[in-house]
Amino acid sequence: MPAVSVIVPTYNRANFIFEAVQSILDQSFRDIEVLVVDDGSTDETLAVLSTIKDKRLRVYPSTNRGRSSTRNMALAFATGEFVAFNDSDDLYLPGKLEMQVKYLRENPKVAMVYTAAIHIDDAGNRLPGRYDANASGDIYYKVAFFRPITIALPTVMVRAQIVQDVGAFDDAQTRFEDTDLWRRISREYLVHGIDIETCAIRTHVGNSLRSLDPSEIMVQLDYYIAKIKVQDKPRGRLVSFGLSRLYGHYAQAFATVPEWRSDWELLFKSQWYELPLGRYCYPVARYIYPHRTLHSFVKTEIRSKTYAAKMHFLNFAYQHYVRARNLVRSLKR
Q: How far is Cα 261 from Cα 267, in angstroms, rounded to an integer?
């Protein structure tokens, strides 16, 4: 039985799949199996995979089922003590698996480890920005709502038993399925971040924001938030602030695409409505930031250093409002 099972779903990635798989097979840690599930590709993806002659690689052709179902299919075949993931257009950098296996074996109380990552373009050239990995321990509030930490799926390694305990990817999710899994893991277990770049996440036309359907993103966002509201109630009132932050995160992203104006305005409104007393504050915010300045607000205010402080102040004010209200009610009795 191999120590690590690496899960790779793919669909029409003939131009990237060889490099992605080879970056896994070339790792210094050799005790691995690489499980590639082809999700009904119509290009030469399977033909490219057939040129890789390595006994550790196993390829499973499938019908088009979506990436959550495809990953779950690979998980069903996985036999490793640990599970890692890669997307078929991204790359592992040298030493990734060795470092993560070493850490998990030395820290049995940690369920999952993730790392930093860089951005690259089609040709493999580095782009500005990176995924940070500077949060560890009980990080539920830091990862479930995408801010301040977004965990890139290829950077993750998790104990296989943990995935069995919390459940695999949600087949109904076509987006946010990886963050949903990190949310369920971090809600119950300790997670560790290693702020060393071990993966290269590729940005290209096929996965850019503009290539996506905004209505599908909105539907999937609502589905994800509905899950949080039902499943994470024990986490308390701060969940509502996290949901506000999540809406704000996507309002910021949508604001970069002018054609999606109606959607990012709805996200901006939802951000306020998730907050205590937010539905009363929203008309004021909407007055202060009319249509001509709302776009600028979404791009700058949400990512400002004072944003979190303002949210905490609102929470503080709301708690005192509740105490005063309850005191008045008790005096009236």
A: 10
Distance from C-alpha of 32 to C-alpha of 79, rounded to nearest angstrom: 10
Q: CA angle, 20 as apex, 14 and 22 as ends, to 5°?
A: 110
Task: Give, for 320, the enclosing helix (H) or strand (E).
Answer: helix 307-332
User: Could you give the CA distance from residue 142 to residue 132 in angstroms, rounded to a whole number?
Assistant: 12
C-alpha closest to that of 88 among 131, 46, 143, 130: 46
Helix (H) or strand (E) run with residue 85 in it: strand 82-85
Closest alpha carbon to 176 in 153, 149, 210: 153
**The two three-digit tokens of residue 92, written as one number:** 């592992």
Enumerate the H helices of 233-277 as residue ranges: 238-254, 261-273
> Per the structure block, which two tokens stand in for 322?
């509740």
What's the pTM? 0.83
Alpha-carbon distances, residue 80 vs 75, 111, 192 (angstroms): 10, 15, 20
Give, for all 333 residues of the chain, the pLDDT tens digit. Answer: 899 999 999 999 999 999 999 999 999 999 999 999 999 999 999 999 999 999 999 999 998 888 899 999 999 999 999 999 999 999 999 999 999 999 999 999 999 999 999 999 989 999 999 999 999 999 998 899 877 788 999 999 999 999 999 999 999 998 999 999 999 999 999 999 999 999 999 987 666 777 788 889 899 999 999 999 999 988 877 788 888 888 888 887 887 888 887 887 888 888 888 877 777 777 776 666 544 344 455 445 545 445 555 555 655 666 666 677 777 777 766
Helix (H) or strand (E) holding 5: strand 4-10
Separation in Å, CA 24 to CA 21, 148, 178, 220: 5, 28, 20, 31
